[in-house]
Design a protein that fits this description.
two-stranded antiparallel ribbon; 5-stranded mixed β-sheet; 700 residues; alpha+beta; Heat Shock Protein 90; 28 helices
C-alpha cells in the first residue's frame, strides 16, 4: 500500500467515526500530497472526502451553505474521475453528489446522478458501485414515499450483494431495507434488520450507522410495549449521537422518548420533551420529522381534551405532510382532524376529514391508522343518529383494532357499540358489549397500573442515567488529569534521554581531539556551545511545548556543533517559509533534532565531501511540516557500512521520537494521529541511492 493510499484509508476511518474536523485536516493533506505527486486518483479521493465532510456536517447542522460547498467538491472529484477514466471511483462520487442534492431536495438532480452511477457500475460489473447505487435509489424513493419502488431497488441490491462478504455492503443493504420497514411500520422486520446493522456498524466503526441502528431497534421495542428496552436503546443512541453532534438522530431519540411517555399516559412529560425539541432544534427539523412532531403534540393535546390546541397541531402537521407528499402522515392527520372536529360537535367537517382519510388508507393499504378513523366515523354517525352506518363502522373499527391489538381503540369501539345498541333499544346486546367493555377496562386499568410503574421506573432510569453520565464525566476528567501527569513524567524522561549517547560520546571525543591537536580555541568554543546545548535540553524537559522560534534556535546551536565536529564538510541550509509566525506557533520540544542527527549519522558521516543537508519548515491547512533532507549514502548503504557503537549502546534517536509520537497519540484518546512521520529513500536518475528525506507533520 502506497503512502497516499495509507493516508486515504486513515482518513476514511476518521470519516466513519465522524471525527469531522480531523477528517477535513487529513483530507486536505491528502489533496496537497496527491497534487504534489501528480496522482489524479488520490486527488479525486481527497475531493470526494472533503465533499463528504461538508455534506455530513451540513446535514447534521442543516447548513445549506455547507451542502452547496459539498456539491462543489463532488463536482471536482467527478471531473477528475471522468478525465482520467477512474471508472471504479466515479460511481462513488456520483452517489455522494446525488445524496448532497437529495439533502437539498433537488430530486431530479439526485436521481440523475444515482442512475448514471448505476449504469457505469453495471457496465463494469462493479458490485460495490451497484450496491450503493441501488440503495441510493431506494433512499430516493423512500423520501418520495414510494415504498414499492424503494423495495424494488433494495431487492436488486440484495441480488448483486448476496455472493459477497463485504461488511460495509451488507450494512448498507440492511440500513436501507430497515428504513423502508420503518416507514411501513413493520416492526418485526425493523428489529431484525437493524440488529444486523448494529452488529456490522460496530465491527467496521461506522458511528452514524450505529446511532441509527440503535434508535430504530428502540422504535421496534417500543411498538412491542417493551418500553425499558426501548428507552435503553434510545438513551445509548442519544449519548453516542451527541458525541458526533448528529442532531437529526438526537431529535429522533428525544421525540420517541416523548412518545413512550405519551403511550404511558404521562402526557405532560411527553409534551415537555416535544416542546424541548421544537425549542432546541426547530430550525433544523426536516419536513418528515416536523410532521411527526406536530402530530405527536396534537395527539397529546387530544388526550388532555385540549381540542383547540390539538386542532392547530394537526393542521400544521397536515400542511407540512402535504408539501412533501407524505401520504401516511396525511391520512393520519386527516383522521385526527376528524376526531377533533367530532369532539367539538362539528360533524359535517369531521365527516369530510374522515372520508378523505379513509380514501388514503384504502390507497395505501394501511391499517395502522385506519382503526382510529373507522371508530371516529362510527361515532360521528352515532351522534347524527345514522345508527346502521354507525354500527358498520364501529364493527370494522373493532375488528381492525383487535388485529392490531390497539387497546385504547378496542375500548372506544366497545363503548361505542354498547351505546349504538342501547340507542337501537337492543338492551341485551347493549348490556353484553357493556360487560365486555367493563371486563376489558378492568384488564386495561391493570395494564395502565403496570404502565404507571414502568413510567416511574423509566423516569428513575433517565435520572439515574443522567447521574451516571455526570459521574462518568467527573471520573473521566480525573483519569485524564492522572494520565496527563503520567505523560508529562514520561515526556521528561524521554526528553532527558533524547540527546543520543552516541552524540555525547562523539562530542566529548571531539573536544579531546581539539585539545590534543593544541586547538584550544576550537575546544573552548565547542565546549561552551555544548554546555549551552545541554542546559537547553534540561530546560526544555520541563516544558510541554516551545515556540517554533525556540526550537529553531536550539537546532541552529545543535547544527553548529555537529558541523564543527564534521569539520564543516556539510553544507547546511535551515529555511523557513515566508509568512510563518515563529513566535505564535507552539510545538512539542526536541522532535526535529533526532531527525537531523540521523541524517548526519546514517548518511553524511559516510560521505567524503560535498555533503548537503536541508531543513525546511512550511505551513499548510493547519499543519506545520518540517522536511529534513540529506544527500548522504542512504539507509541501505549506511547499514552495510556499519558504524562503531560503544558497548551496550543502543541507537535511540528515531526510536525515542517514534515512542514520543505514540505517547502523544495515546494521550488524545483517539485512533488518529496529531503528528505524522514519514521516511523516504531518494534515488538519482540511474536508480542509485541519493540520500534520505524525512517529513514530520504536526497538527497545529
Amino acid at each position: 500500500m502506497t503512502g497516499l493510499e495509507n493516508l486515504y484509508q486513515q482518513t476514511v476511518k476518521l470519516l466513519l467515526a465522524r471525527k469531522l474536523p480531523k477528517t477535513e485536516k487529513f483530507a486536505k493533506l491528502l489533496l496537497e500530497d496527491a497534487r504534489a505527486a501528480n496522482d489524479p486518483e488520490h486527488e479525486c479521493k481527497a475531493n470526494d472526502l472533503l465533499g463528504e465532510v461538508c455534506r455530513v456536517t451540513g446535514n447534521y447542522k442543516s447548513d445549506i451553505d455547507l451542502s452547496e460547498q459539498a456539491i462543489d467538491y463532488f463536482k471536482k472529484a467527478a471531473a477528475l474521475a471522468e478525465r482520467h477514466k477512474l471508472t471504479l471511483l466515479k460511481p462513488q462520487v456520483l452517489i455522494h453528489l446525488g445524496t448532497a442534492y437529495l439533502d437539498l431536495k433537488r430530486f431530479d438532480n439526485a436521481r440523475e446522478q444515482f442512475v448514471e452511477a448505476l449504469q457505469i457500475s453495471q457496465q463494469h460489473t462493479d458490485i460495490r458501485g451497484q450496491n450503493y447505487a441501488y440503495t441510493a435509489l431506494s433512499q430516493f424513493y423512500v423520501i418520495k414515499n414510494d415504498f414499492e419502488k424503494a423495495m424494488e431497488y433494495t431487492t436488486k441490491c440484495y441480488e448483486v450483494t448476496k455472493e459477497t462478504k463485504e461488511d460495509d455492503l451488507w450494512l448498507n443493504y440492511y440500513i436501507r431495507l430497515g428504513f423502508i420497514y420503518v416507514r411501513r411500520h413493520q416492526y418485526s422486520e425493523i428489529l431484525e434488520y437493524f440488529e444486523k446493522a448494529l452488529t456490522l456498524s460496530k465491527k467496521i466503526g461506522d458511528v452514524e450507522a450505529e446511532c441509527l441502528a440503535m434508535a430504530n431497534i428502540a422504535v421496534a421495542y417500543a411498538s412491542k410495549s417493551e418500553f425499558k428496552l426501548a428507552l435503553q436503546h434510545f438513551l445509548s443512541s442519544l449519548e453516542k449521537s451527541e458525541q458526533i453532534q448528529f442532531n437529526l438522530n438526537n431529535i429522533k431519540c428525544l421525540v420517541n422518548i416523548g412518545t413512550i411517555f405519551s403511550i404511558l399516559h404521562n402526557h405532560e412529560e411527553a409534551q415537555k420533551r416535544y416542546n424541548d425539541v421544537l425549542t432546541s432544534y426547530g430550525d433544523t427539523l426536516d419536513a418528515n420529522t416536523s410532521t411527526v412532531m406536530h402530530y405527536n403534540i396534537g395527539d397529546g393535546y387530544f388526550s388532555m381534551k385540549k381540542w383547540e390546541e390539538a386542532e392547530v397541531s394537526f393542521s400544521t402537521c397536515l400542511e407540512i405532510a402535504e408539501q412533501v407528499e407524505y401520504k401516511e402522515v396525511i391520512a393520519l392527520a386527516l383522521a385526527q382532524k376528524g376526531r377533533t372536529s367530532s369532539a367539538q360537535k362539528k360533524y359535517d367537517e369531521a365527516l369530510e376529514f374522515g372520508f378523505r382519510a379513509e380514501k388514503l388508507f384504502d390507497e395505501l393499504g394501511d391499517i395502522h391508522g385506519r382503526q382510529i378513523n373507522l371508530v371516529s366515523l362510527g361515532r360521528i354517525y352515532f351522534e347524527t343518529d345514522q345508527l346502521e352506518t354507525a354500527l358498520d363502522y364501529a364493527n370494522r373499527g373493532f375488528e381492525t383494532a383487535n388485529t392490531m391489538n390497539s387497546q385504547e381503540v378496542i375500548a372506544d369501539a366497545l363503548v361505542l357499540l354498547s351505546s349504538i345498541f342501547k340507542k337501537k333499544e337492543d338492551y341485551k346486546r347493549a348490556y353484553e358489549y357493556h360487560v365486555r367493555y367493563a371486563e376489558f377496562m378492568q384488564k386495561l386499568d391493570a395494564d395502565r397500573l403496570d404502565r404507571h410503574l414502568v413510567d416511574m421506573e423509566i423516569m428513575h432510569e433517565i435520572r439515574d442515567k443522567q447521574k451516571k453520565i455526570e459521574l462518568l464525566e467527573k471520573t473521566r476528567a480525573q483519569q485524564e488529569s492522572e494520565f496527563q501527569e503520567k505523560i508529562t513524567q514520561l515526556k521528561m524522561q524521554a526528553l532527558q534521554a533524547q540527546m543520543n549517547p552516541h552524540f555525547i560520546f562523539n562530542s566529548m571525543n571531539a573536544i579531546q581531539q581539539f585539545l590534543t591537536t593544541n586547538d584550544s580555541e576550537s575546544a573552548m568554543i565547542y565546549l561552551s556551545r555544548f554546555a549551552r546545548l545541554i542546559r537547553l535540553i534540561f530546560e526544555y524537559s520541563r516544558k510541554s511545548s516551545v515556540t517554533l522560534e525556540e526550537e529553531i534556535d536550539f537546532l541552529k546551536l545543535y547544527l553548529d556543533l555537529e558541523n564543527l565536529r564534521f569539520k564543516n564538510k556539510v553544507t547546511v541550509n535551515l529555511e523557513i517559509e515566508d509568512g510563518i509566525d515563529k513566535e505564535s506557533i507552539s510545538i512539542p520540544p526536541l522532535l526535529v533534532q533526532p531527525l537531523i542527527e540521523n541524517a548526519f549519522k546514517h548518511g553524511l558521516m559516510h560521505k567524503e565531501s560535498d555533503g548537503k543537508l536541508l531543513i525546511f519548515f512550511s505551513q499548510n491547512n493547519g499543519w506545520l511540516k518540517c522536511t529534513v533532507q540529506d544527500n548522504g549514502v542512504g539507509r541501505k548503504k549506511a547499514k552495510e557500512l556499519g558504524q562503531w557503537k560503544p558497548e551496550n549502546y543502543r541507537s535511540s534517536g528515531l526510536k525515542i521520537t517514534k515512542e514520543r509520537l505514540k505517547l502523544m497519540k495515546d494521550s488524545q484518546n483517539e485512533n488518529d494521529e496529531n503528528i505524522r512521520l514519514s521516511i523516504e529513500d531518494l534515488h538519482d536518475g540511474n536508480g542509485q541511492p541519493a540520500g534520505t528525506k524525512v517529513e514530520l507533520l504536526i497538527d497545529l
